[in-house]
Specification:
561 residues, alpha/beta, twelve-stranded mixed sheet, four-stranded mixed sheet, 20 helices, 25 strands, globular
Length: 561
């Protein structure tokens, strides 16, 4: 008997019955004049309207996170979209807050990041590509500062900047390993002073973090001015404000600061704004979008990138700490396939029932459950269903979670949309409404920087020690003496493991966390700690998704997953 072919994500998205963005705005009581449209299906929300919301009470905040990612897939964004639709289906007023996808992974590994199946945000092609131009604005603002630093050096260097200690790099929103380390200004006197530099991907830019953590344009410009771009010969820091770039950068970012409103396949509202990666940055959508959503609806579902060891930790320790947010519940997404891989099953064997591998992989899930509970946030597990999952495998996960004092719910939102996730929606709403959250960050502001690093490494990663040479410890001590000791730490680490070894899956113990480099992000308000071999400029895989992305005869995009 022939089977019905499964539609691709882009085919499903293209067939969506979208409402106009003004209709979506009406569901949130946003007046038409407060919407700044980009076509008929996406718009920015005006800053003036957002300011008018300040006196309203906040809704409930729900975080969606996941186990450590594997090539088998977990579906965190898909589950976030599905849960938002599910809450609306059961009569709750809800919306989702997501990050904007980066072009790097779209053309690299992922081929798109707007959800999947019947739990997507649309217009899918626009969201995955240039969208409303926010990433281009961030890239331009970042590189304007780069240009002004080198221009300052060229015209006499009045600030006495030590050319060897310029720490500000350039960025672009594409995976390009060839640009990790470069030499700039070659070609003689007319081109300036040659120096070593490099590129990061735009999502790792401090400007991205600043945009996502700023409260408004005034706060944005203050944070931009606080950026430390390097050091003088006497080792004192030089700021963006001294370069006199903060005003022009704010102008470039003025429109980008406003959240983007789109819709799900089921015509429910969604904010998509900002897009820092969680393995090399803080991995959360903008504070402005989250706070605005909390004023507009009763339940806000947001996600934090990669596994809970990265995204959730940074959501709690950086975003919630800085923005004064109080999460009411958390959802940890897992798939049977990914649990098998964490239980040492081979990728080619994932379609075969293997309860033992699932049980072994649940150790990874169990650690994430325990970690989220450390923050005082109630947690539930969402099993993102695949057709190859067996009853015995699903039962094994549910039994494991019950032993951990947590409930696991099977979800079929990918295939069924909101109809397949109503049970999870009911239980999440109940969990959030119970008011049992006792949220608190993992460490105090007063702790030393190295102590904060050790706290995350030992309590979240379960490492035995942090390995850092004297130069790194001295640098941290110097920043403390300069008044930066109160900042949280942003751990840049592989997403594939609790350790710094991407091949060490499951729930490893007895490992060390080697620190390769530390970077001060004074404007964003944290210290970046680069661990192991993680790169802030990714490279493309052997066969990047870009090889199969193109236009068909009708001029439509094909190849986005």
């Amino acid at each position: 008997m022939p089977t019905t072919p499964v539609k691709s994500d882009i085919e499903i998205a293209r067939a969506a019955d979208k409402k106009s963005i003004w209709e979506i705005g009406k569901t949130l009581d946003i007046p038409g004049e407060a919407l700044l449209p980009f076509g008929n299906d996406k718009a920015k929300i005006s800053a003036d309207f957002i300011k008018e919301l300040e006196g309203r009470p906040d809704g409930k905040l729900i975080l969606v996170t996941a186990i450590n990612p594997t090539p088998a897939g977990e579906g965190k964004t898909t589950t976030t979209v599905g849960l938002g639709d599910g809450l609306n289906r059961i009569g709750r007023k809800a919306m989702i807050c997501l990050r904007e996808p980066s072009l790097g992974p779209c053309f690299g590994m992922k081929g798109g990041a707007a959800g999947g199946g019947y739990a997507q945000v649309v217009p899918m092609e626009d969201i995955n590509l240039h969208f409303t131009g926010d990433f281009h604005a961030i890239t331009s603002a970042h590189n304007l500062l780069s240009a002004m630093i080198d221009n300052h050096m060229y015209w006499g260097n009045e600030l006495d900047i030590d050319q060897r200690r310029i720490t500000w790099r350039r960025v672009m929103d594409m995976n390009d390993r060839a640009l990790r380390e470069v030499v700039a200004a070659l070609g003689g006197v007319a081109n300036g002073f040659p120096r070593q530099g490099g590129f990061d991907i735009t999502v790792a830019s401090e400007i991205m973090a600043i945009l996502c953590l700023s409260n408004d344009l005034k706060d944005l410009q203050k944070r931009l001015g606080d950026i430390v771009i390097g050091y003088r010969r006497d080792r004192t820091p030089v700021t963006c404000r001294e370069i006199k770039a903060d005003g022009a950068m704010t102008v470039l970012l003025r429109d980008a600061m406003q959240p983007n409103l789109v819709q799900t396949l089921e015509n429910n509202p969604a904010f998509i704004h900002g897009g820092p990666f969680a393995n090399i940055a803080h991995g959360c959508n903008s504070v402005v979008a989250t706070r605005t959503a909390l004023k507009l609806v009763d339940y806000v579902v947001t996600e934090a990138g990669f596994g809970a060891d990265l995204g959730a930790e940074k959501f709690f320790d950086i975003k919630c700490r800085k923005a004064g947010l109080h999460p009411d519940a958390a959802v940890i997404v897992a798939t049977i396939r990914a649990l098998k891989m964490n239980g040492a099953a081979a990728r080619e064997d994932l379609a075969t029932e293997n309860v033992a591998a699932v049980t072994e992989g649940c150790l990874n899930l169990g650690r994430h459950i325990a970690n989220v509970k450390q923050f005082g946030v109630p947690v539930i597990v969402a099993i993102n269903h695949f057709l190859t999952d067996t009853e015995a495998e699903i039962a094994a996960v549910k039994e494991f979670c019950e032993e951990e004092g947590t409930e696991a719910v099977l979800c079929r939102h990918w295939a069924e949309g909101s109809a397949g996730v109503t049970e999870l929606a009911e239980k999440v709403a109940e969990l959030a409404d119970e008011g049992h959250s006792q949220f608190a960050p993992l460490y105090r502001d007063e702790m030393g920087l190295f102590q904060k690093i050790e706290t995350v490494a030992k309590r979240i990663y379960r490492a035995d020690e942090v390995l850092a040479d004297k130069t790194i410890r001295d640098q941290l001590h110097q920043w403390e003496e300069a008044g930066y000791g109160h900042l949280p730490v942003c751990m840049a680490k592989t997403q594939y493991s609790f350790s710094t070894d991407p091949n060490l899956r499951g729930a490893p113990t007895g490992h060390g966390v080697p620190i390769r480099e530390v970077r001060l992000a004074a404007g964003a308000g944290f210290v970046v700690v680069i661990c192991g071999e993680i790169m802030t400029m990714p490279g493309l895989p052997r066969h990047p998704a870009a090889e199969t992305i193109g236009l068909n005869e009708d001029g439509e995009v094909v190849g986005l997953f």
